[in-house]
Amino acid sequence: MTLSLPGAAAPEAETRLGFWPVLNDVLHQPSALAGLAIVTVFVLLGLISPLIEPYSVHEATCAVFEPPSWQHWFGCDDGGIDVFSLVLRGGRISMIVGVIATFIAIGIGATVGILSGYFGGWVDTVLMRITDYFLVIPQIVLMIVIAAVWGPSLSHVIIVIGALMWTSTARLIRAQVKSLRERVYVKRVEALGASHFHIIIRHILPQIGPLLVANTVLAITVAIFNETALAFLGLSDPTAITWGTIMEHAFDRAAVSSGAWWAIVPAGVAVAVLIMGCYMLGRSIEDGLNPRLKVSYLSLHGWKLRPLVGRGPDAI
Amino acid sequence: MRGSAYIWKRIVFAVVTVFVALTLNFILFRVLPGGPVSQISRVPNASPALKQALTAQFGLDKPLWEQYLLYLQQTFRGNFGVSYMNRQPVLDNLIEAFSNTIPMVAAGTILALTLGVVVGVISAVRRGSMTDHLSTNIAVLFYAFPTQFLGMMLLIIFAGVLPSAGMNDPFAIGGSGWDTFLDALKHMVLPVTTLALTLYAENALIVRSAMLETLGEDYILTAKAKGVPRRRLIRAHALRNAMLPIVTMVAMSLGAVVTGSILIEVIFSWPGIGRALYTAVLKRDYPMLQGGFLAITVVVITFNLIADLIYYKLDPRITT
Q1: Are A225 and A275 in contact (CB under 8 A)?
Q2: A51-96: per-residue pLDDT in tens?
Q3: Which of A11, A98, A194, B294 is surrounded by the fewest CB atoms within 10 Å?
Q4: Bridge partner residues of A263 (DSSP)
Q5: Model ipTM value
Q6: Does the domain formed by B98-282 have CATH 1.10.630.10?
Q7: Chain B: closest CA distance from residue A155 (Å)
Q8: DSSP code of A305?
Q9: Smallest Cα distance from B161 to chain A, Å
């Protein structure tokens, strides 16, 4: 058994963390592939949903709380509207809400994280203080208060979710940027006279790229969760069809007491499957970035040592 | 000496955060559209004179900083205003709501923590085995279901078997203390189960990855080489060191506990703080909403402080 100093080996191993090598690595895992497949199917369904909705989502086409049948696969809701069509349409809007809110959140989080990690000093102190406060204040309650005072509307929900969800991203990115900042190649580029902007765009961003992708995918799950929660509490636009409002209407209009599970299950399962897909994809990318998780000294399959250099198949 | 400096720092941070929350609470209800003046003047046929009188009565004609000081002063005296809905002081409403919430949330959280640690440790130790795959996937599944969905499903499945709403049977009069206790326990089953199911998954996943991280450490290899028994290795060497990230994550997930309990209380008509917030939103009961937000925030901040202190106890090396 050869030993090497972990401190000496680590930087070399990590400089290989380019954007594409990592993604390539990750996409060879079954769970990442499954997650990607789920997300792709949902996105496609969302894109073509107006074309494949079998019935109108505004006019009644069957009896109130009609159970599932061959004509209406998922049955009907309290207004006699086909649940299958509703869930398809709801997915489209829920995903749009989730993605826009996530982009707002990741945008703010990445900017704050990069600025405070890169510049350090008072910028870091001020930004991290603000982040700390946002981190501690219970977000969903603040969301409820803001949404309640502002009035129910889909765009308010998007803004509220996006503007309150960025804190964990900021912390994560800051830590990463802080360590990247100390790398030799960053110091070297700086000494060669590159501008801060150039360094951040060309040398820092590509390195945190995979982490950002993982974070975005995971944040979408939280955004969609928050959307359904806010909608359930009646704080979303009551006329918009989203997975959240479908469940809210079902609850409000006595689907539970009349045992009409088909008015609730499709939307709930759709949320769960999409979130599982996002979670599997995001987690695989995150795990792929952390080679330490690949080793366990207690593993069932005998001895395995942490690779000294390299990752994946070319580890030594 | 440095340790007590750390503790002081955390306490100061908590106090400042409470002030930030207080200020947010003050600003939100004044700067955003639908502030107090427009609320008050929403009376039909309100004359300008009435508006003016109301504005003066509530001190809204004073400069903003003076209003702020007044607000702080009243808040510290425990005066959160009067609820629009039941004309009770908000503080009384809050105390009652919290005393209903605490048993339910405490039971659910403890159950979720225990389940999460057990499942997480087992799947980390048997990494890559069938048990691991199964329990991790089940955890991800429960993590993925929205709380309100799980709650409604439990309601539909157990309707009739278990009580579905409220904290106790309003028609049960004259039973012994034991009967009342049993009745209350029965009412807790569904809400507590829902909360535990939604929370355990996240805990299990966190514990699993924290354990995996520690199991890869060199001292585990050393301990194993020394011949430390497996059970002791897991408990004393691995889990003990994995506790640090677990404590942080659990403290961070307090927000999820709050969210979960709001949804659960709405679904199971549990007369707690979450439902109080919900009805406050529905009825636009602003004093109640403000008070509820403040109360929940203070509770969460306090628990975060406690987590910080536990963290210090577990690992006295930290000083930042």
Answers
A1: yes
A2: 777 777 777 777 777 777 777 677 777 777 777 888 888 888 888 8
A3: A11
A4: none
A5: 0.77
A6: no
A7: 15
A8: -
A9: 14
